[in-house]
Amino acid sequence: MNYLDLYLQKNNCKRYDVYKKTGVSQQLLATHTSKKIEKYSNKVIMALAEFLNKTPGTVLDELIALEKENPAFEAFNPLELLTGLEYKYDVIIIKGAYCNEIYKLMKGQLSDTETLGIELGSAGVATVLAYAINMVRDLFSNSDKVQREIERKIISYKLVEASHEQLILRLKQLDY
User: Fold this and answer.
1) Phi and psi dihedrals of 64, rounded to 5?
2) Dihedral of the CA atoms 60, 58, 56, 26 (nearest 10)?
3) Domain named HTH cro/C1-type: which ranges (predicted)?
4) What is the percent of the chain with per-residue pLDDT over 70, rounded to a whole number?
5) What's the pTM value of the predicted model, to 2 decimals?
């Protein structure tokens, strides 16, 4: 899980902000997005501490607590949702006006049982055909690149809970 971006999100900032204030390269920060907290370099911990006006020990303690908590990623707009999908957060909570759009997209997906039935019934040919159709559709689609990426990646998630205020998505592979 991407604890660095989640930690920065909880502190109302982004990697770019840390880079601008501390000079730590964006590439170094990006390499830490897929690492466990125990593998974070001193340089990154020190940069976070400097940026947030905290001690390195406090930053490390908060990161470790965040890792133990295993929180959900919150998204309020398409770019934030795409970030959560790209890093494959276990649980993504979509809040705000963007909920309705994603709810429609999730309701349009086939259930696991329906997908399995189609794949078994067609001996796998339907899967290849669906992939080809999606690629052609993306070529001629009027939707923007971010929306196409969301549509492609969101199939890895299932809708767990839906209300007018929020949607909760969970990574399907956690159920297997």
Assistant:
1) -65, -40
2) 60
3) 4-60
4) 99
5) 0.64
How big is the chain, counted in residues? 176
Q: How many CB atoms lie within 10 A of CB 21?
A: 13
State residue 1's pLDDT score: 60
Cα three-residue angle 108-130-89, rounded to 5 degrees: 60
Return d(Cα 68, Cα 152) in angstroms, integer: 30
- Tokens 């196409």 label which residue? 148
* Start-end of H helices in 87-124: 99-107, 112-121
Per-residue pLDDT reduced to its tens digit, 99-130 = 888 888 888 777 777 777 888 888 888 878 87
Q: Which residue, 21, 146, 7, is CA-closest to 66?
A: 7
State the Cα–Cα distance between residues 111 and 126, nearest whole angstrom.
15
